[in-house]
Amino acid sequence: MLNISLYNAGDDAYQTSLHIQLPKGLYFTKLVAQEETQIHFQISEKESQGVTINCSIGYLYVDHLSKVDISFVLDSSSLSRADDDLHISINATCENELDPDLLSDNNVVLALAQKHEVELNIHGSVSPASFIYGPSEENSPISCMEDTINVTFYVSNPGVSLAPDVNLLIQIPNSFLPRDTKLFNILDVKTSDGQCTYENHRRDCILPEEQGNMVQDLITFLTKLDNRPLFCMKNDQLCWQIFCKFGDMESGKEATVHVHLEATPSLLSIVILEGRHNQKTKHSVSVLLIAIGSLFGITLLLLLVLFLWKVCISVLIYTLVHFNGLASKREKNYFSKH
């Protein structure tokens, strides 16, 4: 809706005209004005300039100190993308204006900022969906996983307008707190459009040996979950940061980003990827479990021996007391007969 107020601050203006130049992409639909206002308009269109509306206002003149309000309904449905601002030029003239210097306020240019109707979608997939993690076998060679982990992200613009300067930030969890050992190596990042950058560290498949506390390792093993989710915070230093720039994305356009990872011996997964623990214990934890089990068994055996010993003593004392009682009774009977 284009609303115009025409105000005559001078003498009566004869044969007043209003000239409106619309930019390309905007079209005239209808005119809305007061019933008593006499307006005749003519529309012309040139491919290079757009639509021009020439209006004749009033019967013969516009009264002194009078105001005319006019509204134009415009159609912008043909604009499929947001470019620079749209400019609408408006010029009012009359036949009895003598001094051209007084026409400086008869022109106005309206700038309409275009808004982008952007609707970006993103979804992804990962293969494989899960893998086993945990301590390796004793004396087994330490190496990265033979099978790579492939993560694919799809970015699309299903909206009706161009999406300007589209960027994508991918964050991949890369450590198991409280340890900061790296979980993944990035082998390659490919994109179908634009460019992706990331901080490239050296490929490392060596797991540093940690001298952990046996009691702490035991507690960690007993409280460990089968599934452990990972996530990234904003500007997380413990996550891989992959930044992709696609530039302007047209309506209906799609970009694909492929990330190839390999898991270091330190383990785990990304976003939807699910890590499963192999439930194997460290050697130190196994020794500690055997020691605790042996100590518990020996303690139980000693308690059982002590219990049996006390039972035997009680039975022996009861037998002796009962035997002495019988002997005393026989002696009394013997003396009473003689």
Automatic annotation (TrEMBL):
Tree of life domain: Eukaryota
UniProt main location, coarse: membrane
Keyword Kinase found: no
Organism phylogeny: Eukaryota, Metazoa, Chordata, Craniata, Vertebrata
Xref: Gene3D superfamilies: Bicelle-embedded integrin alpha(iib) transmembrane segment, ntegrin, alpha v. Chain A, domain 3, ntegrin, alpha v. Chain A, domain 4
Topology class, membrane: Single-pass type I membrane protein
Residues of the Integrin alpha third immunoglobulin-like domain: 120-263
Spans traversing the lipid bilayer: 285-309
Coiled-coil intervals, chain numbering: none
Xref: PANTHER family: INTEGRIN ALPHA, INTEGRIN ALPHA-4
Transmembrane helix listed as a keyword: yes
GO cellular component: a single term: integrin complex
One of the GO biological process terms: cell-cell adhesion
Cell compartment(s), UniProt: Membrane
GO molecular function: integrin binding
UniProt protein name: Integrin alpha-2 domain-containing protein
UniProt xrefs under InterPro entries: Integrin_alpha_Ig-like_2, Integrin_alpha_Ig-like_3, Integrin_dom_sf
Start and end residues of each Integrin alpha second immunoglobulin-like domain: 1-111
Pfam families, per the entry: Integrin_A_Ig_2 (PF20805), Integrin_A_Ig_3 (PF20806)
Keyword list, A-Z: Glycoprotein, Integrin, Membrane, Transmembrane, Transmembrane helix
